[in-house]
């Protein structure tokens, strides 16, 4: 794909992991990228790494569940780069816990970032794209847990299924402005966050994935590149599952680490 010249993208939760790799791959294709992370050091380090590879990238630190900050973030992206062509709502929280013991405070925190943050980033970005009159791309980050049940992820899974319905519903309002909205549902993916939950993550999930390995952040970024590209202009309201075939039969490895927390 060589059709990203002159485009501008904003990615939340991009200090590390999937968000960072999406930002990196876009920047390597001449997209001007604004990376967000709640951790200022992570956001700036990500931007520095991308610039070191020759990409055009700036960092903006802040809470991607805060609607005021979201609107400021979009405005600052436009102020810095002159426009906005793509927004990726990648910031999210994975929260493990028994349904019987789940606390309201944790519930509210997960919904605030995974749902409210994604919803209002899409809104702020779409408003800018509508005003520009040149179309755009919105990408929401779902999960295979929005398709298949896994123990101890009831709240998280609910938010991911909701994001896929959001992508479908927004087709009706955004299509007249040539704005597409899609989702990606990653399966088991080796990221710093997942390795922090379970140091054996890559090995245990590789054993139950039909392709024989857990996914990488590049696997997810490659799918994102397609959905964000002009080549995907006729694809909207869809979810691409990137899971090595896991959701075909959905075996779950040991989740003993949840009880150890």
Helix content: 40-55%
Q: What structural class do the secondary elements suggest?
A: alpha/beta
Output the radius of gyration.
18 Å
Walk across the major sheet and give the strand order: 3-2-1-4-5-6-7
Number of domains: 1
- How far is it from the N-terminal to the C-terminal residue, by CA? 43 Å
**Major β-sheet profile:** 7 strands, parallel
Number of helices: 10
- Tell me how many strands there are: 7
- CATH topology (level 3) name: Rossmann fold
Oligomer: single chain
Strand content: 5-15%
Give the overall average pLDDT.
95
SSE sequence, one letter per element? EHEHEHEHEHEHHHEHH
Structural description of this entry:
It is a single chain. By secondary structure, the protein is of the alpha/beta class. The protein has one domain: Rossmann fold, CATH 3.40.50. Helices cover 48% and strands 15% of the residues. The protein has 10 helices and 7 strands. Strands 3-2-1-4-5-6-7 form a 7-stranded parallel β-sheet, sandwiched between helices. The chain is globular, with a radius of gyration of 18 Å. The model has no long low-confidence stretch (mean pLDDT 95).
Note the main attributes of this structure.
single chain, Rossmann fold, seven-stranded parallel β-sheet
Short description:
The chain has 261 residues and is of the alpha/beta class. Helices cover 48% and strands 15% of the residues.
Task: Set down the secondary structure blueprint.
Elements: E1 8-11, H1 17-28, E2 32-37, H2 40-52, E3 56-61, H3 67-81, E4 86-89, H4 104-132, E5 136-141, H5 154-174, E6 179-186, H6 192-197, H7 201-207, H8 217-228, E7 239-242, H9 246-249, H10 256-260
Parallel strand pairs: 1-2, 1-4, 2-3, 4-5, 5-6, 6-7
